[in-house]
């Protein structure tokens, strides 16, 4: 929307110094159905545009009423986060800048047509703070295009404050330490790392654990000399046994070997059974993992299918609202692509479900 103001030089007598026009402009944002009506009114160029579209602002300069074909809409004047240059042309070749747009009049159906007036504030700090809070209500965080969503928050975001140490105190302490080192006869220093000290403590504790059994065994060895003498005598008696006892010992050894062979067979059989059970368990775990992967794929395809159906519904609603035939054909082509994508996703979902059912039956 545009309002013109004539400005001229004071005391100018020259005819060439004719007054020129300045334009102050703002953006009018309306609901979709009323925006199409206002667009048709502007394109028709009829003379009764003032009867069909009127804008009334309240004394606060921020709220007002916009009437489109005598339908009242509550409006609010907000400040945009950026400057938008407005251009106009006559021959569609040369463009002239007319104004910098920095405000937008937002109209809504469910707004309050006559909001309560706010009381004027004084000059004390509390009232100034209230004024700032009141101005924040009329700050618009977004631009007028999609890439400028939340542009005010992203452009004027708060930066992290670094925690600085008081440098004069640190510098004074460093100078004091250096002066004491210079006056000293000899200086000794060492670097203590907490990680290295912990590792050293762990190694020392492990070494103590390894060395403790050996020392106890050494002490026990000094006190068991009498037992070793008795064992030596017993071994001497065994070496002087007769041939009959040797034959009997050979027979016992054969029996022991037979017993060991049977035990080995039993151990082997048990090991084979354990291996079979482990392989069966491994196969079942593998099947469970494959089933889980199929479930994840099916859930992902279902989510995509739901999103595609939502896009399809939105595109159909958009086609119903558009009146331009060329634009409607373009939207219809996009709708056909979305329908094809929906069919592909349904086929993919059906094939995955069949594979999962066959795997579960096995």
From TrEMBL:
InterPro entries: TAF7 (IPR037817), TAFII55_prot_cons_reg (IPR006751). Residues 263-362 form a coiled coil. GO terms for molecular function: RNA polymerase II general transcription initiation factor activity. GO terms for biological process: RNA polymerase II preinitiation complex assembly. The keyword RNA-binding does not apply. It comes from Sander lucioperca (Pike-perch). Its main location: nucleus. The gene is taf7. This is TAF7 RNA polymerase II, TATA box binding protein (TBP)-associated factor. The keyword Cell inner membrane does not apply.
């Amino acid at each position: 929307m545009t309002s013109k103001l004539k400005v001229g030089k004071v005391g100018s007598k020259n005819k060439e110094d004719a007054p020129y026009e300045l334009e102050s402009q703002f953006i009018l944002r309306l609901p979709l159905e009323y925006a199409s009506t206002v667009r048709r009114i502007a394109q028709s160029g009829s003379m009764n545009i003032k009867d069909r579209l009127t804008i009334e602002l309240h004394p606060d300069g921020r709220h007002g009423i916009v009437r489109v074909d005598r339908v009242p809409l509550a409006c609010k004047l907000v400040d945009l986060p950026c400057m938008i240059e407005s251009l106009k042309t006559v021959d569609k070749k040369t463009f002239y800048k007319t104004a910098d747009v920095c405000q937008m009049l937002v109209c809504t159906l469910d707004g309050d047509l006559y909001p309560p007036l706010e009381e004027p504030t004084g000059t004390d700090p509390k009232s100034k703070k209230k004024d700032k809070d009141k101005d924040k209500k009329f700050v618009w965080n977004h631009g007028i295009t999609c890439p400028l969503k939340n542009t005010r928050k992203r452009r004027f975001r708060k930066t992290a404050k670094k925690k600085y140490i008081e440098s004069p105190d640190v510098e004074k302490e460093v100078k004091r330490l250096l002066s004491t080192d210079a006056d000293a006869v000899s200086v000794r220093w060492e670097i203590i790392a907490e990680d290295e000290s912990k590792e050293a403590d762990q190694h020392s504790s492990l070494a103590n654990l390894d060395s403790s059994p050996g020392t106890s065994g050494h002490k026990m060895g000094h006190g068991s000399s009498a037992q070793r003498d008795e064992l030596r005598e017993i071994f001497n008696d065994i070496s002087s046994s007769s041939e009959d006892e040797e034959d009997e010992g050979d027979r016992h050894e054969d029996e022991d070997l037979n017993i060991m062979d049977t035990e080995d067979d039993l151990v082997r059989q048990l090991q084979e059974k354990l291996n079979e059970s482990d392989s069966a368990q491994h196969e079942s775990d593998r099947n469970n993992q494959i089933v889980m992967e199929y479930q994840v794929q099916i859930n992902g395809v279902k989510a995509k299918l739901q999103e595609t159906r939502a896009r399809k519904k939105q595109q159909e609603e958009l086609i119903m609202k558009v009146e331009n035939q060329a634009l409607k054909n373009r939207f219809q082509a996009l709708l056909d692509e979305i329908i094809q994508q929906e069919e592909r996703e349904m086929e993919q979902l059906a094939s995955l479900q069949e594979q999962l059912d066959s795997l579960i039956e096995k």
